[in-house]
Amino acid sequence: MSTANPTGAEVVPENPFAEDVEEALPPPTTLVIFGATGDLAARKLLPAVYNLRHGGLMPEQFRVIGIGRRESGDEEFRAHARESIESHSRTGIDDDAWRALEPKLEFMRGSIDDPELFQSLGDRLRGLDEQEGPTQRVFYLAVSPTLFATIAKSLAAVGLGSGADPPSRLMIEKPFGHDRESALALNAEVSSAFDESQIFRIDHYLGKETVQNLQVMRFANGILEPVWNRRYVEHVQITMAEDIGIGRRAAYYDSAGAIRDVMQNHMLQLLSLVAMEAPVRFEADTIRDEKVKLLRSIRRYSAAEVPDYVVRGQYRAGWVGGEAVSAYVDEEGVPDDSKTDTFVAMRAEVDNWRWAGTPFYLRCGKRLPRRVTEIAVQFRPVPHLPFARADMGDVEPNEMVLSVQPDEGASLRLVAKVPGQTMSVRPVLMEFKYGTSFLGDSPEAYERLLHDALVGDATLFTRADEVEEEWRIIEPILERWQTDPQVPDTYEAGSQGPADADRLLAIRGRRWRQI
Amino acid sequence: MSTAAAADHRPGREKPKPTRWSGEGVTPDDINAELDRMHRAAGGPDQVLALARTLNLIVAPCADPGERGVERALDRLGDHTPSRTLVLREHDPERVDASVVMECETPTAAGQVGLCHDRVLLSVDRARLEHAASFLAPLLVSDLPTVLWLPEPRADIPDAKLLERAQYLLVDSAGGGPDELRRLAELAPTIRVHDLAWGRLEYWRAAIAAAFDPSERRRLLPKLDRITLRHEGRGLHAGLLLAGWIIARAGWRPGSLERQNGQATVTASRGDGGEVAIELDQAPPEHGCGGVDAIVFAAQSEEIPVRRGGATSSLRDMFAEALQPEPSFSRGYAPAVATAAAMLDGAG
User: Fold this and answer.
1) Cβ–Cβ of B311/A1 closer than 8 Å?
2) Least CB-CB distance to B323: which of A2, A58, A439?
3) Helix (H) or strand (E) holding B331
4) pTM as predicted
5) Distance (Å, rounded) from C-alpha B158 to C-alpha A420?
6) A485-494, B57-66, B297-306, range with the lowest pLDDT
7) How large is the ipTM?
8) CA angle (A59, A62, A66) in 5-degree steps
9) Which residues of A fall within a CB distance of 8 Å from B251?
10) B169-221: per-residue pLDDT in tens?
11) Interchain proximity A60–B50, CB inside 8 Å
12) How many Å apart are CA B268 and CA B282, to the nearest integer?
């Protein structure tokens, strides 16, 4: 470890201890949670903070400042946090770990409309830095998206935005805008307060292990690459089905629908991960560059073309999981005349060298028969079947299914001879189930994402241009639906969705996989 | 050979799954045949079962009290259980007795797949135990990694060929003494050692690396002259491993360990000839993460404290992690244990 170079200038040694560390600890951090007494903080954030700290993945110098409107102080906030952790932590609560975390939790009461709150917050952070040493500031906005821009600008106004010293980061959660125009406006407003490198947009779906595994499956298995293109793939189906209804989210969901809630973000993210080119390195911007390239190549339909490529539906009463469930319009808080889509199916065309002519069929919806998220890649049939006989029946083409949830894994459908005297064939499955091959528990998506943001790794976060490209694809669909007097087709709860969705695939014998 | 298989066999139908079987004077072929029969009989129209595809685990023999610990550890593994566990025990009769259990976790919801795994308890005489690898080879599931677990760090490895058969050696050196550290130092260059004691120290390695991330802290590295490492009462072993790692990574030369009045000290030599005094102090037993409670690096009057911050190693299922081919904690073990052993041996 030399300390001077030949010119006599001091040389700072490398950190010799870093090479054996796989998961770096974040630098000293103050996490400021806006909406700290809300539902997201209780169910996800506070348990994630607890588990990361208990598991030794947080820095020793760490503190949480919760901000909320409730009449509350540090003690009440700590009691609330303990209750949240007890109820929602995947590991329960350990008294020793809680005792270490408890004094690190503080609360500030205030209204986001009040500039005084931000002035006080800035003063408090600077005061704490002087007492205990500087920490990075991470602002997590667990509040309504309508407040994102206000908070970002108010933070910047008191010197906590771009160029802040110590550095700061801003974490916001989808939806990023209500349409393309509002997304552009939100990006512009947030970007006026924070640099893009400081902004971490959460699509929690990207924090799921199995979604991350999509890239490993594709780019670490040499046998897939030669066939992962238009020449061998006939079409791809991406399904994200939920059996649940909208719960108590009527106020949000009725203004969003399935298209904004799921299609614009999760579904297009899955599509981009399945279809993108291999990044040069597994780094945040190289991956996101490839995703943006892919999103740019997805054809934007004109408003007039929308009915040919997109189908929407709304569930009516039916039976799901052995229980009678009500129609969407009878859900609490939903207007009787709501035209909101609870199901969307779409045929996406990827106009690039790899995929031109191979359609991607996407569908998502609520109150479908079961909860399943999967990507099914259907390969082209063999050009000629040498042992074809009249009694043999159709030979199913090969199909690879990547299951994201609930039963994570992959399967490949092959055709095999049925043992016996005749040349009968039938499809068989080669299956890999995640749970049969991997040991240990996975962290919650929020633990992974929070830790990544704290160490500054943006790989699993959505960049501004990704969001804008996603809205570019969705925009004409929204325009068409807004002006279209026709109401969405209804489908019986527990069914496969509206019958019209079948029309999208009804060529060359294509059909949706059973949900 | 005598057997004690369980259930009835109904003609025309696969026998319902007997999950236990035992036999005296058996061969590997007998055991494989029984395992095969159990696998075929598993499952049914109302549940889908699959064999776990994780790893083979060979458990080396240990003393009677240790056997109960082994049972508990294997029971606790639950979903993480290896595909096939082969537990070795020594007995007097000159034959091999086997007890085979196939355990299946029942799916809890429609659409889920239940996982099955096998556990084979092999009681073997001394002569055969010394050639255990030849007996176990036919019983290993092909194409899966094999882990050799030494439940007691002091226990002998009955057949050196097992180290060739296994890809990893699983051990918890926390219960061992200087001789075990020396043995692990010898083994580490030849087989990947997954030492649970090392796993529990992962937080400290990350915390030390983070402490020296700022450039103003790294400037102090060449000037460090004292390190105080506070360990739990029974954590000297952990302290030695961590001190060994610090010395190895900093490129220092270790001196010999000296003990006086409950305190252990080591003097390491820096590359520039300077010395670093490393003190291993005992802390109250209720504190600590992996046996260590706090570390303070000092360069003259400047100090860099590295604290626990509420981190514990209890949250992690270290045993399950250690069964993975590449647990995150495994890096840096060989130089750490080699340096710790060198300190014990007084090698300068």
Assistant:
1) no
2) A439
3) none
4) 0.81
5) 49
6) B57-66
7) 0.79
8) 145
9) 1, 16
10) 999 998 778 888 999 999 999 999 999 999 999 999 999 999 999 899 999 99
11) no
12) 20
